[in-house]
Amino acid sequence: MAILLVHPHECCSTKSPNMTQRPLDMSPMKSLVLLTGPNGFVGAHVLDLLLKNHYRVRGTVRSLSKATYFKNKYPEASASGCLSFVAVPDIQAPGALDEAVDGVDYICHVASPYFTSSNDPIKELVEPAVNGTRNVVSSALKSKTLKRMTIMSSFASVVDLSKNPRGGYTYTAEDWDPVTPEEAAKDGFMGYHASKTFAERAAWEMWKEAKPDWDLVTFCPPMIYGPPMQEVDKSKGIDGMNTSIKRLITSVQGEDPAFKPKVATPGLPAWVDVRDVAQAHVRALALEKGVSERFLLCGGVDYFEDGLAGLRARGEKGLGEGGAHVVPGKHFGIDRSKAEEVLKLKFTPFEKTVEDSWEAVKQLGLI
Which part of the chain is the NAD-dependent epimerase/dehydratase domain (predicted)? Predict the structure, then answer.
């Protein structure tokens, strides 16, 4: 396992290169967080927020070349050693993270591929998710310093697809997707749901059986939208974006083939802002010892048109024709009270999430 940019130092800064230099923060050494998937849509936001909250971060990447973007984005944190990277080519390989977890205070397991097209859902979706999660937990159980581990699961591990749209029902952290291995093998969509369900269940089972001296927190967000912070291949246009943002943008542009030229209706109307998901991760690390919980994260249940009032009011170009608005009570609800009470989260309104996503992609020159 190769390690990049490891120079222990007290200061953790997210200052960009064009900002005025200021004295280094000489506060005591901060806690070290192992972050898997820092170069993903959610992971990039978690990384940014961890650094802003003065954590030291050790990120896992498949190859150290993937870390160049962050080295340039956070030059001071990289130079000081507050931001370092380890190469983990295959997170499924036995013991792949044993060295990476050495000496860490926290683990944020965010690495979580999101795709539903698969010719072999079990081998391409279920096994990688379950094996990857088992590996991370297995390595965590060998740690002598770990205090808490967070795992980003998904609302896919909560929802019962056979009962959609389940109007009037409110999902809670006690709900689990009843998907079976047989159903998982049918197609990529079911395979994705199974991958999230089986992986999260495996984590809880391993943790409960081992009874370690560290706490476990899992997050179950539905569709995640918001402004991208990860490295984007602009040469691919909108196809260079992550799946959820690509879906959001093409839907509000009226480019979804099933709804064109109107703004599309989402298959899963439940959503959450990526910045709120990042906040949940960072706030969970600060919880008192002994708190191990499963949190549902949800900003609301909306159709894409419900987030376009502001953009339409100002005459924004490039939007599709008016689409459908969500019908109150038609779809299930998600109980987010635990996240609000325990993590003190205040969820972002859908209109702001859509507008900020649109503006960020626009600034990238992809709209």
Answer: 33-289
